[in-house]
Structures are given as structure tokens and as C-alpha cells.
Amino acid sequence: MSQPGAALHLHLAAFAALSSADRKLLDAAVARKVRTIGPRKDIISEGERPRVVNVLLSGWAMRYKQLSDGRRQILSFFIPGDLCDANVFILGQMDHSIGTLTEVTYAEISATDFEHMMECSTRITKALWWSELVTLAVQREWTTNIGQRSAYERLANMFCELLARLHLVGLADGNSFDFPLTQNDLADATGMTAVHVNRTLQQLRRDGLIDLNNRHVTVTDPEGLKAAAQFNPNYLHLDGGVSN
Amino acid sequence: MSQPGAALHLHLAAFAALSSADRKLLDAAVARKVRTIGPRKDIISEGERPRVVNVLLSGWAMRYKQLSDGRRQILSFFIPGDLCDANVFILGQMDHSIGTLTEVTYAEISATDFEHMMECSTRITKALWWSELVTLAVQREWTTNIGQRSAYERLANMFCELLARLHLVGLADGNSFDFPLTQNDLADATGMTAVHVNRTLQQLRRDGLIDLNNRHVTVTDPEGLKAAAQFNPNYLHLDGGVSN
DNA sequence: CTGCGTCACTCACCTATGTTAAGAAATTGA
DNA sequence: TCAATTTCTTAACATAGGTGAGTGACGCAG
User: B191 near A146, Cβ under 8 Å?
Assistant: First the structure.
């Protein structure tokens, strides 16, 4: 990514074309405090008090919950441009953790900077609401995915979603993208076991839908994959919203 | 409920004490357009364009997604006081449906009224953000519930959550509450089959944790139920938030 | 008051997915 | 560059939960 804020621009641009003033505002907010952190570390843990809004600039991260007996549910993946919950600092404590999967750079936006940004631009305010609503919609889709779909459909869905989202921020090359997750991560994200993820992945490969190796995915049959997943991208709300 | 807006006041009061001016603002917004609709009807369907924010005043409703082959995932329950997504009208179309379970009365708040309300009161704006963030947190908990927990734990969780939420708006009497869901609804909400819900419910009864009949639930052993569910209410963020 | 639909409940049987274990391959780190 | 560790893969076996097909009890619409 040539410029730190680029992924964020692209992310929000899915909702509305931003003015150059908007872009400057975002860049300023995102330049104030940039951090780098290694793979498999927590950015913030359950129980802590959120004080800032984080924006992922590069790398992959995840939101997850850990149960007392060690079971882990991965709740969402963060890719560059993603915001971790506008206005979280309203809440007293985190009900889940945010951890990195790869090395990550992210920007912290303070509560006051965040509020300032919203005061300065109605368009940004709306774009942030949009982003929040999409986060919610994605969480619902995951609930549906885990609740109703078979292992095969679930994984197919996951790849469809990631391809669409990575495309948006310029991180997919055609139907390929870098994919730093282990099968274990995939298991915890889809509510299945690593063994069964492995079996199911083999099946997806045998069916010629995807190619996954060396931490890289190529969707070899995009239409087939979408069909297998019954993938309907409406929940990503990439149609530009209503108020444009 | 003596007064239409009462449940909404109680709902938001979990975050911040509202001033009487705030309460008046809310009451006015909620009085503008009140509708009544019978049980098992859609308030808005997937694909439609959301134009208003709905606030549930009485009865139970649900958010759900239907797959093309008929599978249905219930994504959340609405009880009185609940808002259906602040600012949804930003989105071009619904990615899920909202339907009633019982007869329901609800208020429609127009986009302009909604925005007006947020301009007039910072406290209300924050309370609405809080409500939105809690909705998200609940959705995450459901994802975790379905992804990681056994049938028994899942149902236990569901009852714990509902008891807590109904309490908040004055709709639980000690450890009892009216419960209009069928076992089929419960199945679609927890990602299991009705047969297995039935089996598991029997087990919860045999273990003396709950009593469910005649559309009425009594939690006979609250501590036992919480333990069985590994219930941690932190995700409901009933601690009053940070900015009070 | 009756006939039809819905709902709770059961049973017998089945299968998708989990469990445990172990070796091969890849990656990391000293 | 080799040892240690993590990840991928396979296999044999176990089980939670799904399927399909009922029965009886209500409740309500005609």
C-alpha cells in the first residue's frame, strides 16, 4: 500500500465518494498514532477498557472470544481499511479480544479526534455509520453461516466473502489473494474442528473450486464457489448506499 | 406498559440517566407514527429499502434470514424498547427480514426526526451509539454460542440472556417471563432442529434449571442455569458505560 | 361442536462432524 | 544448516445431533 490511509479511503469509498477535504481529515486522524505489532499478539483484550478507535493499515487481524475452557470463536477478520467499531470507547470494557494474525500496522484514533472528524464532515459521519452497519451485517451473515450451513458451504462462503472484501481494498489480484490463516484459525472461525476443515478443504480442491497452498488462495471457479456457498453479497452493502 | 415510550426509556437508561428533556424528545419521536401488526407477519423484508428506524413498543419480534432452500436463521429477538438499527436508512436495502412473533406495536421514526433527535441531545446520540454497539455485541455472542457451545449450553445461554434483557425493561417477574416462542423458533435461533430442542429442553427441566410451559418460562435455578451456560453478561454492557 | 392446523413430544435410525493419534511437510530460530 | 515447532494430512473410531415419521393435545374458525 503506497500510502498509509489508502486502504481506509478505499474501504469508505465503497459507500460514498469522499471529497479531498474528507480524505485529508481521514489521513490526519490516521497519521497521529501509528503502531506496529508482531503476529499472534493481542491489540486489546477482553475486559480492558477501549480508549481509541483502531484502524488497520496493513496485515490481518481478528476479533475473537475465548471461553473459560479454551474454546475459541473467531468473530471476524480485519483486513486493511477496517475500523474496529466506531465509538467503542463509549463502552466500559471489551467483551472480546482483538488479536493479530500477521504483523500488523494500525492507527489509533483518540475519542476527541474521532468526534472532531464526525463534526467536521457529515459525509464521513455517514460513512462511519455505514461501516458500522456493515460490520453488523457481516456478523449476522456469520451467525447464519455457522447456524445453517454445512461445513462445505461454510468454507465456500468464507472464501467468497474474503475475496469480495479484499478486492474492495485492492488486495486481491483477480481471483487470488494472500491468505495468512492456518486451518486451525479457519476452524475457530467457522465453528468446526481443524480436522474437518482439512477434509472439507480437500473436497473444495477436488471439486476444482479453490486452490490453497503456501498461504495463498486462488479461486479457480468463482461461479462454482458462489453457487456452492449460495453466496449473496448483499450483506456487504457495496451498492453505494442510498444517500449519494 | 403504562406509557408507550416507557420500555425505550428503560432500555436506554441502562446506559445513561436521561434528562426529562431527553425523555420528551424520545416520546415525541416515538409518538409520531405508531403501528400495530399481527403475529407472524413481516415488518420489513429482505431486499426492501429501509426508510425509518423502528422501535418496538410491545410484543416480540425477530430478525431473520431465509436461505433459498427454506432454511431459516433467527438472528436476534426484539423485545419492547429495542431499536432496529439506528441509521439503517443509510443502507440501500435490507439484507435480512424483520418479522413479528406475537402481535406487536412499534413506532416508526423518520430519518429526519431521527437526525433531529441526535442533533438536539448529545446524551441521546451516545445512548443510541451504545444501543448499536450492544446489538453488535449480542450478535457476536450468538455467533459464539452457535459456533462453540453444545445444544444444552446454547439453550441455557438463550434463557439467561432473555431473562437479563427482559428484566431491564421490566418484563420479567423475578425469574419468570412470558415466552411466546415455539420450539421451532428456538431451533432456528440456535442452529439446531426442533426435535433436538425438545430433547434438550427436557434435559434442562430434568436438571431442575427451568420450567417452561404454557408460553411461560420460570428459571428455577438461576445460578445453575448460568453455570451450565457459562453465562457472562458482560456483552450486554449493563454497567452504565463510561461517559456518565 | 367439530374439523383442521399447529405444537409438543417420542421413537428408531442415520450421518456429519468430532476425537485421538500419528507421521509427513513446512517453517522458524539458533 | 540442523533441531524444534508448527502446520497439514490421514486414518479409525465415537457421538451429538439430524431425519422422517408418527401420536396426542390444544385451540380456534366455521
Answer: yes
Q: Do B87 and A133 touch (CB under 8 A)?
A: yes
For residues A9 and A25, give the distance between their C-alpha atoms in angstroms, rounded to a whole number.
11
Q: What is the C-alpha separation between A21 and A75, in angstroms, rounded?
A: 34
CATH architecture, range B6-141: Sandwich (2.60)
* CB-proximal positions of chain D, under 7 Å: 6-12, 16-21
Q: Which distant-in-sequence residues (6+ apart) come within 8 Å of B20 by Cβ?
A: none
Number of CB atoms found within 10 A of residue A108's CB: 17
Q: Which three cell numbers stand for residue B111?
A: 430519518
Write out the three cell numbers for A72: 475459541
Gap between the terminal Cα atoms of chain B: 27
Amino acid identity for residue A104 in this structure: V
Angle at B131 between CA A25 and CA A121, to 5 degrees: 20
How large is the average pLDDT for residues B212-226? Answer: 97
Greatest extent of chain A over all pairs of C-alpha atoms, in Å: 53
The Cα–Cα gap between B160 and B230 comes to: 10
DSSP-H helix ranges across B83-169: 111-120, 122-148, 151-168
Q: Which residues touch strand D (CB under 7 A)?
A: A 182-184, 194-195, 198-199, 201-202, 213; B 150-152, 191-193, 195-196, 200
How distant is C1' of D22 from CA of B73, in Å? 26
Specify the 3-state DSSP secondary structure of A158.
helix
Locate cell 472528524: which residue?
A: A117
pLDDT tens, position by position, B80-103: 999 999 999 999 999 999 999 999
Alpha-carbon dihedral A28, A33, A37, A40, rounded to 10 degrees: -80
Task: For chain B, give every domain's residue range.
Answer: 6-141, 151-236
- Residue B58 identity (one-letter amino acid): S
Q: What percent of chain A has pLDDT over 90?
A: 95
pLDDT confidence bin for A242, thresholds 50/70/90: low
* Inter-CA distances, B168 with A222, B10, B151, B227, Å: 47, 7, 26, 21
DSSP code for B173: B
* Measured distance CA(A146)–CA(B189) in Å, rounded: 11
Do residues B85 and B127 make contact, with C-beta atoms less than 8 angstroms apart?
no
For the domain A151-236, what is the CATH code?
A: 1.10.10.10
**Side chain identity at B123, as an amino acid letter?**
R
* Strand C contact nucleotides, protein CB < 7 Å: 6-12, 16-21, 26-27
At B86, list the grid cell.
439506528
- Residue keyed to cell 424528545: B25
